Amino acid sequence: MLTANSLLHFIVRATLAHTYLEVLRVWTANRTGRWLFKRVHSAGHTVRTDRGTTVDPSTIQGVKELLPQNGYDWAMDYPHETQRIAQRMKFYNRHGFTAHDLTLYDTILCFTHTDASSISKLDTQSEKRAGTAKIIVLPGCRDISSEDCAKDPKKIQELISNIKTAIKGFISRELEDWNDGLVERTQSYRTLQLLLPGLNPRFEEANDFLTDTDKRKEYEIKSGCTIKVTKYKGSTKELLVSIVGPKEHLKEAAALVQSSNIAVS
Question: Most CB contacts within 10 A, which of 165, 182, 191, 215?
Answer without folding.
Answer: 191
